[in-house]
Design brief:
By secondary structure, this protein is an all-alpha fold. It is about 75% helix and about 0% strand. It contains twelve helices and no strands. Helix 4 crosses helix 11, helix 5 (about 80-105) packs across helix 7 and helix 9 packs across helix 11.
C-alpha cells in the first residue's frame, strides 16, 4: 500500500524542467496523469510527433517497462486475461477520478486510492458493462487517430472518435469477444509502442534520430501501432499459438478424393 501511495503522490509533482528524456533516478509524474493530460488535449496524439514526444519524455523508464509488459500481455493474451485487465483499467480510472476530485477536497492521494478501490470492486460484478465502456473508449481513440492518419482535418478528429465509439458500441450488443479484443489490442498496442519509444529516448544514440524520424514521418507511429493491433487481433481471434497451428494444419489437409464408380 505504501508503494501505491507513493506512485499516486507523483501525480501532483511537476514535470521535468529540462528537455530530453527523464533521468533514471527521477520517477517524475504519474504516468496516468501524463496520459490523461495528453489525451484530453487531443485523442489523435499518435499522429502529432511534437505532442507525442512531449508526452513520452515525461514518462520514466520504470513506467515504460510497465507499459511494455502490460501492453505485450494485452496484445497477445488480452482475451484470456481480460477480466484482470478490465479491473485494472477500472482502478486506473478511479485514480484519475480521485485525482480530479482530490484537487477540490484537498487530498489527492487518499481520494485517488479510495476511488481506485471503489471502481475496481464495482467493475468486477459488472464486467460485461465495464468492458463495453472501455472498449468504446478504445474505439474512440482508434477512430480519432485513423481519422487524422487518413488525411482528414485534424481539428475535427473528434468526429472520427465518435465514429469509432459508435462502431465498437454496436459491437458490444452483438459480440462480447470482439469488443474485448478491440479493447485489449488497441490499448495494449498503444502502451507497448509508447513504452518502447520511451526506452529508446533514454538512449542518447537513438534520441535525436528517433525524434527527427518521427517529425519527418508523422505516420510512422500510427502505422506501427496499427500493425501491432492487427497482429494482436489475429493472434487472439485464432486462439493463440495453438489456434494458429491448428488453422495452419487444417489448411494443409488435402480434401479426400471421391472414388469414381467402376
Amino acid at each position: 500500500m505504501r508503494a501505491i501511495t507513493t506512485l499516486l503522490a507523483q501525480a501532483s509533482s511537476s514535470p521535468p524542467s529540462s528537455g530530453g528524456a527523464m533521468p533514471l533516478n527521477d520517477t517524475g509524474r504519474n504516468a496516468v496523469a501524463v496520459l490523461n493530460e495528453s489525451l484530453s488535449q487531443r485523442m489523435d496524439v499518435l499522429n502529432h510527433p511534437d505532442s507525442l514526444a512531449q508526452m513520452i519524455t515525461q514518462i520514466n523508464l520504470v513506467w515504460a517497462a510497465i507499459f511494455i509488459i502490460l501492453g505485450g500481455i494485452c496484445v497477445l493474451n488480452g482475451y484470456r486475461w481480460h477480466k484482470t485487465v478490465v479491473v485494472i483499467l477500472a482502478g486506473l480510472s478511479g485514480i484519475w477520478a480521485g485525482m480530479t476530485l482530490g484537487r477540490t477536497i484537498g487530498d489527492e492521494v487518499i481520494v485517488a486510492t479510495c476511488m481506485a478501490v471503489l471502481f475496481a470492486v464495482v467493475a468486477w460484478p459488472f464486467l460485461r458493462y465495464a468492458a463495453a465502456i472501455f472498449g468504446g473508449l478504445a474505439g474512440a481513440f482508434a477512430g480519432a487517430n485513423v481519422w487524422t492518419a487518413l488525411g482528414y482535418d485534424a481539428t475535427n478528429h473528434h468526429l472520427g472518435a465518435l465514429i469509432g465509439l459508435i462502431i465498437v458500441g454496436m459491437l458490444a450488443f452483438m459480440t462480447y469477444r470482439a469488443v474485448v479484443i478491440v479493447m485489449t489490442t488497441v490499448g495494449g498496442a498503444s502502451l507497448l509502442i509508447i513504452g518502447i519509444l520511451t526506452v529508446l529516448l533514454h538512449v542518447e544514440t537513438f534520441n535525436s534520430a528517433l525524434v527527427g524520424r518521427m517529425n519527418d514521418k508523422p505516420l510512422m507511429v500510427p502505422l506501427i501501432v496499427g500493425v501491432a493491433v492487427i497482429v494482436g487481433a489475429v493472434f487472439q481471434g485464432s486462439g493463440g499459438l495453438k489456434g494458429l497451428k491448428e488453422l495452419s494444419d487444417r489448411a494443409e489437409k488435402k480434401t479426400p478424393k471421391v472414388k469414381q464408380a467402376a
